């Protein structure tokens, strides 16, 4: 349903806002009353003041205000596959048979299609309460596997998509060289991903100023230990550190038991164990899908300060397995969520799926609540905002994440008039209703990203045109990839 853009909506989408007053706002330490939030023209908070009175002329929030959630893992093009792999294609369907279908799409997508799909996706993300996205971007070359005349072509599509939608971007160009442990050559389906280490470092050099112009963060993603041999991993990390000592580093690490077995056969070690012994993993790292770890790996990986990148709906969709979040938390581990293949694009639904997976595995309830935050949706939101910001590389040294001075003004206002929120007295209950009961009829009302109002009445200002372009690109792509 497209809504016409009002003159106010147009004006507020082009001028940075400067303040919002919220009766309830979720600050790093928990819910606070009567909070005045102010930000500067660059879109960073300059004041977060609880116990205030609404100054005249300042916009008042109509419902509880949350920090925007960072989406720490995205492969934008995979949004075009949504709903299309939910049938049994082989005697036993698996992650690996899903990947065959995914490669067909990756093999065919054009730059125009990628930009349209990513723009539509990022608009959906903002509407769903995400304000930052870590794009794990591995389709680099043309359909024949040749570099584009401008080698950065597809990265530029993603930068433009994030700019058009107004979402914060952490761009993670992906290093991909082999099809399996021990340097097995890449398959034809992987031809668009392959890049030498020096070509990757050159790409990062080219992208760095372009990212800086739009406030995007630039990192690097060795795809997996399957795809990057040890020498290349070492050289890439050294090269990256020479360019930017604090750049985020993301890796797919132990998603499938088949991957763990193959790593053991190759090295005698499990993937997380191998990584911890061969790379200096620290708080700049995000371990995506560290699903299969033994007790020692949980303990050691948590101690590095790295963020566990959990993608609950994709991991369920692909039949990966269940991450033991209680064990990770007991070891002091940090975590955040990503929508990965975008089987679902809904920040609340990722939190719901994550908590439910833990309930099913432990036969307990409210598993992710803490002593400080007994309301599980509140506890999870705070943890995922903080871990997500760390993984996105957007934390300032020594400062908190979310609604605090120095951070980007990324705000989500809940709709207090939503049927499941009406009649509730506390922001804890309203956030719980949003996460656990509003399902598929999101209670997000307004979203500001970098201080700019992007979503009103649950709808992005550009949603009509972005959706139309998405549908067109997807239709073309599906026609061209029909088996
Ligand atoms: C990806 N996705 O790179 O898109 C992967 C599948 C692989 C997830 N791991 C491919 N969910 O890991 O080889
Ligand atoms: Zn992934």
Automatic annotation (TrEMBL):
Cofactor: Zn(2+)
Gene Ontology, cellular component aspect: cytosol
One Pfam family it belongs to: Amidohydro_1
Molecular functions per Gene Ontology: deaminase activity; metal ion binding
Domain of life: Bacteria
Gene3D superfamilies noted in UniProt: Metal-dependent hydrolases, Urease, subunit C, domain 1
Domain Amidohydrolase-related: 65-453
InterPro entries named in the record: Amidohydro-rel, HutF, Metal-dep_hydrolase_composite, Metal_Hydrolase, Metallo-dep_hydrolases
UniProt entry keywords in alphabetical sequence: Hydrolase, Metal-binding, Zinc
Record protein name field: N-formimino-L-glutamate deiminase
